[in-house]
Amino acid sequence: MAAIRSWGINARRGESAMEQGFPIIRVEGEPYDRGHQYGNAAQDRITVTIEAYKMAFAHFAHLDWPDACARAQAYMEEIEAYAPEALAEMRGIADGAGRRLEEILALNARTEIMLTANICCGCTAVAVLPELTVSGHTFIGQNWDWISAVKSSCVLLQVKQPDKPDFLTFVEAGLLAKTGLNSAGIGLCANALISDQDRGEKGVPFHVILRKILDASRLDEAIAAVILPSRASSANYLLASVEGEAIDLEAAPPAVGYHYPLDGFLTHTNHFTSGLSGIRDVGLTVFPDSLIRDSRAYRRLKRWPGKIDRKNLEELFRDHVNFPHSICRHPDPQKPPAEQIESVGSVIMDLDRGELFLSDGPPCTHAYRRVSLRDET
After folding, report:
1. d(Cα 362, Cα 366) in Å, to the nearest integer?
2. Contact 101, 264 (CB under 8 A)
3. Which of 10, 117, 223, 327 is most buried, judging by how many CB atoms fall within 10 Å of its CB?
4. Structural domains for the chain
5. 357 with 349: CB under 8 angstroms?
6. Dihedral in degrees, nearest 10, Cα atoms 270, 272, 274, 277
7. Could you report the per-residue pLDDT of 274-321, keeping only the tens digit for each?
8. Cα–Cα dist 182/184, whole Å
9. DSSP category for residue 335
10. Cis peptide before 84, with omega less than 30 degrees from 0?
């Protein structure tokens, strides 16, 4: 039976958690069983996720829900070959939530379904290595900027699995994974990218790759989860290890570029910077502010006096330069309701302690709360 902790609310009853925090859902066991526990515990929030993406698919991609679900089924063969356990988890989520498998597939392929719309979430991610931190720990984190409609669908999912690392991930209910860390000391942040090579062709969806990364026991396994499969879409994967190493991977369907932390830290937003040949960056036409956010994050870390601690990263993620399209992003009143994008949540992870600090909304107005991989109740 899944354990659900929601800081004073009962998410099984579908009560709003936004004022009291995203609920924590704890699951364990084999892939299908974990998925079933997740789907059952998050049933009401999965409904919110589906309603949000019905709206998003219609507005951005001009697809109704049945068409989106049909399109998602095209990825099933690639998913099963790459990560059969991920497909088993999705079957469990669907059964636990009383949904059809193709609906859960549509959520986990939502990036690829909306490719033709040239819309991506505008996230800012950083990793800071031990030589720059007060504690000598490795930190990785990001603001996750996405449509306001998903705010009341998000959960913090804690997974215990028998033969692979346990992990924590912050994600929309019904999706497999997003930002997170695991018990092997691997940390993951991600940024959407759009290239002219994103053509909706067959491949492994972005969110399935994120889930596979969180199974990694070493940093090279996390890297392999990105570079080995045929990828269905472009994305950036910022990876770090408790051993004090990090790497940034810019992945388009045909190729992968990379960055090393030459200054003891890495930053990334929503444009290509690795110089991949034959790739035209389309994302900057959607989020030209990506250039400002990346420069701002880099300069703040580069010029920070003395060593950096978690509170300094909280301050960085609250930055409002170029408001409302800032690192701490806020809805733009000039945009229609369906296109309102904001920092839905902010995550900072201490890989040495196995701790994740989460703000339940924009970090400028929401304090960070601590959740540990070792928490049981």
Report:
1. 6
2. no
3. 327
4. 3-372 (3.60.60.10)
5. yes
6. 160
7. 988 889 999 898 899 999 999 999 999 999 999 999 999 999 999 999
8. 5
9. S
10. no
